[in-house]
Write a structure and sequence with these properties.
The protein is of the alpha/beta class. 44% of the residues are buried. The protein has helices at 5-13, 16-31, 50-60, 77-91, 105-117, 134-140, 158-164, 187-204, 265-278, 286-292, 302-319, 341-349, 375-391, and strands spanning 37-38, 100-103, 123-128, 144-149, 169-175, 209-213, 236-241, 254-258, 331-332, 353-354, 356-357, 367-370. The N and C termini lie far apart (52 Å).
């Protein structure tokens, strides 16, 4: 066989988002783009904020020597210092450039972190529903994924987590605001979770890292304040991306932030720098580092996303769908009328509606809708959603 058994196995398991993309391409070819309501991909249609365009034009019009050359693998010191300054303001904790590694998005950050910390068969705990690539990232570096359920509100069950942590547990990944549910973990939950990790780390006399995937940290609604993990646990590592807050997912720019008081701080930073290089990222894109340096306090319009959320939640609720109102990100995760979410998603395709089954996120019986799309796409999908709701007598 030309490819490894491991890759063959993981390819056969597939990616539901990739499958939906392929289905969407066929439907759009058959019916036309305007007649297909693609709610499957978290690919923002909102354009980057004006400040991004201004920075991009400014950089395009200067001829600074060496702008496109290699820099140190950790990234430009000036950019890391800018990130550290913003984190210091947000958390009240003193960060410096030595706590920051610039990466190729949050995906790059997570792979660098996992490559650095994992030995073969170390366990990494994730909470279902979870971002579907976590298992692949953990597998990339010899780890084992352990899935722990959440409750009906998609909040982690800490008593189950307590029983799930063993001597083999190296890290726990949390994702808040969550993809696919839009749930934001409360400060109270973060405190209880980190207290549990402190207890288990002491019990096993080992470090248990808390990896916080914060790709959607700045997309948060209803005046909520994001509860920082750094305040409560020194063995915290944040993976951040500007893909969503600046609407530039194709540019692949993000960072790792390590708690300044982490017990293994210097060794971990050295490991992150090394792994950023040997994984082939080498360094985060130079132009994007120059741009985000001056945009740490800039985001797309959160109001626009909240309006889309309100529109979709109000209409689906009125139709009888069972769903939790998202507090952040740009996804909504309704229940399907029965456990066979794959069949339900295929049924939606009969009305040219593309969504992703909850099975792809470790939670059968649900389906994910992405609402970072044009308003006309959301509006056009309502007829099909209503027809399905009537068929299953949801209301």
């Amino acid at each position: 066989m030309s490819i490894s058994n491991n890759v063959q196995q993981r390819m056969s398991q597939g990616s539901w988002i990739r499958k939906m993309f392929e289905e969407g391409a066929l439907l759009k070819k058959k019916y036309g783009n305007d007649n297909v309501f693609d709610l499957s991909i978290g690919n923002p249609i909102i354009e980057p904020p004006p400040e991004f365009q201004t920075e991009l034009k400014r950089l395009a019009n200067i001829s600074e020597r060496g702008m496109h050359r290699y820099m140190e693998n950790a990234g430009y010191q000036e950019t890391r210092a800018s990130v550290a300054s913003q984190l210091s303001k947000e958390t009240g904790i003193k960060f410096t450039h030595d706590d920051i590694i610039m990466t190729s998005g949050a995906a790059g950050a997570l792979n660098v972190i996992l490559k650095t910390i994992l030995n073969p068969n170390d366990e990494v705990i994730v909470f279902a529903p979870y971002f579907l690539e976590y298992e692949n990232y953990i597998n990339n570096h010899g780890g084992i994924t352990k899935i722990v359920p959440t409750n009906g509100l998609f909040v982690p069950e800490l008593d189950i987590l307590d029983q799930s942590i063993t001597r083999n547990t190296k890290a726990i990944i949390i994702n808040s605001p969550n993809n696919p549910t839009g749930v934001v973990y409360s400060k109270d939950l973060v405190i209880k979770l980190t207290n549990l990790l402190k207890k288990k780390a002491a019990e096993y006399s080992q470090s248990i890292f808390l990896i916080s995937d914060e790709a959607y940290r700045k997309i948060i609604y209803d005046g909520l304040v994001y509860p920082q993990v750094f305040h409560h646990y020194s063995e915290s590592i944040v993976a951040y991306s500007h893909s969503k807050d600046l609407a530039v997912p194709g540019e692949r720019i993000g960072y790792i932030a390590l708690h300044p008081h982490c017990k293994h701080h210097d060794t971990l930073i050295e490991g992150f720098i090394f792994c950023n290089r040997v994984l082939g990222f080498v360094n985060a894109p130079a132009v994007m580092q120059h741009i985000v340096r001056n945009l740490q306090n800039t985001t797309v319009s959160i109001t626009d996303y909240q309006k889309k959320r309100d529109f979709l939640f109000t209409n689906l609720s009125a139709m009888g769908y069972s769903l939790i109102n998202p507090q952040g990100a740009f996804y909504i995760f309704p229940k399907t009328p029965g456990r066979d979410d794959v069949s339900f998603v295929k049924e939606l395709q009969e009305y040219n509606i593309l969504t992703v089954p909850g099975s792809g996120f470790g939670s059968p019986g649900y389906f994910r809708i992405s609402y970072c799309v044009e308003d006309k796409t959301l509006e056009g999908s309502l007829k099909g959603f209503k027809t399905i709701a009537s068929k299953y007598k949801m209301s």
